[in-house]
Amino acid sequence: MWKLFLVLGSVSAAHAGLGKSFINFGGFICPREDRALGRCLRDALNTYIPKLATGLPEYGIPPSEPLVVPSLSIQQSTGPITVWSSYTDVTVRGPSTMKIKDVKVHSDEHKVVAKIYIPELRMKGNYDLSGNLMMLPIKGDGKFSAKYGDIDAVVTINLGRTPRHNGVDALSCEDLHVKFHLGYASMQLQNLFGGDDELGNTMNAFLNENWQKLAEELKTPMEEALRDFFKPLADHAFATLNADDILA
Predict the structure, then answer these.
(1) CA–CA dist 205, 169 (Å, integer)
(2) Between 25 and 228, whose confidence is greater?
(3) Are 188 and 204 within 8 A, CB to CB?
(4) How far apart are CA 169 and CA 30, in angstroms?
(5) Which of 31, 87, 189, 193 has the most C-beta neighbours closer than 10 Å?
(6) Taking the domains of the chain in order of start, what are their residue ranges?
(7) Tell me, what's the pLDDT at 151?
(8) If residue 202 lies in a helix (H) or strand (E), which one and from where to where?
């Protein structure tokens, strides 16, 4: 997939005739120095990210939205929130609207850190939960929807090496973590309390009035979904690059 982002095969400095101080990332001629390389990666990614939603058939890249998370289970027991919940067939829309604000390459630490802004993420799926929210009992199962907006995310990628048959190690994504801060959130849970509309409407209103305290319940699934969105991209991208082009 990252053919679309960076190069479609690492064009090393030697092969591109650019000298050892530059790397060609899909037409972006990037200096290998960490700070300049980070800025170049940022610009390259922002050029191609909007095309993710519909995909690029010419490169064999299918549409990336909606992003599907088959299942997640969460047990949260902190302070006034004690909830056991599971989510299935969750779809997420909005990742392709993101903008890369900053990329920092730490070649000596074998790490890349990207700061990202996402205007809005929308989730839909099935839920099953029970527990207590701020001393109020809650129980239900059915359909749910949620919106998260003004998201500032930090994606941390740990880099490694993968041997190739030609003796030149490929760059690899050893691990990837996503953390984010929300500007706003709203959610709607159907069929709360066995379908009692009055209790269900009251609880949904309570959830949305107190979203800042309660959004942690769905923050984990969102971080998992974003990790699932980024990880395959990173895997494909780094597999095309020579490790010595990036790592100190």
Answers:
(1) 55
(2) 228
(3) yes
(4) 20
(5) 87
(6) 66-246
(7) 93
(8) helix 197-209
